[in-house]
Design a protein that fits this description.
Length: 332
């Protein structure tokens, strides 16, 4: 492809620890090496994107940089036999949007082994309503349902109004589980019950500070997205032989906990890593999201914005005020 220009969000370090972001023009030749050039149709906004967009060096080491860990689009050029121009594809995880120029742009170029063909049953927009958050929710559900069945009892979902949590609530409800969600009682209860939660409990009630090594057993299973005291409390409240998945640390990376829930109740803690998920499992989860787990109400857990709207929405996400999934229309 000729060295055409395109729009992208670019985050620039203007002085030490001072960052600005703007929608500007980039060139195809400035993109990193890779076998597949993709014309982006949609991206989505994740917490990791918000961190990258504000100069978090734990996510992105070098600036200027274009965030966006999710992309769905059409192959424009391919040096790989696995993909042909015109095919609709998805890229999530790996290094996209972290230190590799990401999806908040009209074009990305990536290694072929990062790319997944869009599964039948999903549009590109729907794939980005799921995005990394929905994929992580799918991984969490996939891990949990092998251990916990609907008739075992209630399943707790923490951070339930966020991207991972809201998709997890919706999938578990579709699969027949009785879901209790952790969220804001006043501002989020209607939303969470609307997507399937049977009950909503407050964040304060979900975080026990008594210091007790175990608590009254209630949960057959837990999908945790926040870490910290809420995760510790959930583990201490999980019933015998229950399972807890863990995929995030928005509340805290610390886990104030003893070994007693594990050795007295046989509780299992299952770590979830979507970034380096093997391609075979990655493809299988996407097929489930497009098929038997497909959510009819995807629009109900999402909102659509443009590149120009990103700046404001990033601020809302950092303030914990962004609800559900945010899809970024780039080239639709």
């Amino acid at each position: 492809m000729e060295n055409k220009t395109f729009k992208a969000m670019v985050v620039t370090e203007t002085a030490e620890k001072t960052f600005t972001r703007a929608i500007t023009t980039r060139s195809i030749e400035d993109l990193p090496a890779g076998e597949v050039l993709i014309k982006v149709a949609y991206s989505s906004l994740n917490y990791k994107d918000a961190l990258s967009a504000t100069g978090n060096k734990g996510v992105t080491r070098n600036y200027p940089h274009t965030p966006g860990i999710d992309t769905a689009g059409v192959v424009a050029e391919s040096q790989s036999d696995m993909f042909k121009p015109g095919e609709e594809v998805i890229v999530t995880s790996y290094d996209l949007g972290m230190n590799t120029s990401g999806g908040f742009a009209e074009y990305v170029r990536v290694p072929a082994d990062w790319v997944v063909k869009l599964p039948a049953g999903l549009t590109m927009k729907e794939a980005m309503i799921y995005g990394t958050a929905g994929f992580t929710a799918g991984m969490s559900v996939n891990a949990l349902i092998h251990m916990v069945k609907p008739d075992h009892g209630e399943v707790l979902v923490t951070g339930a109004s966020g991207g991972v949590g809201s998709v997890a609530v919706s999938i578990l409800t579709k699969l027949g589980y009785s879901v209790v969600a952790v969220g804001g009682i006043v501002e989020e209860k209607a939303y969470l019950t609307g997507i399937g939660a049977r009950e909503v409990i407050s964040r304060e009630d979900a975080a026990d500070t008594s210091g007790k090594p175990v608590l009254k057993a209630r949960w057959a299973g837990v999908i945790d997205t926040v870490g910290g005291d809420i995760l510790a409390t959930a583990i201490k409240s999980t019933k015998y032989n229950g399972s807890v998945t863990c995929c995030g640390n928005a509340a805290s990376p610390d886990l104030p906990l003893s070994v007693f829930p594990f050795i007295l109740r046989n509780v299992r803690l299952l770590g979830i890593d979507s970034q380096n998920c093997p391609m075979a499992l990655r493809t299988r989860i996407w097929e489930k999201l497009a098929g038997e787990w497909r959510l009819d109400g995807l629009a109900d857990i999402s909102s659509e914005i443009t590149l120009e709207d990103l700046d404001n929405r990033i601020q809302l996400m950092l303030q914990g005020k962004n609800k559900g999934r945010t899809v970024v229309r780039v080239n639709a």
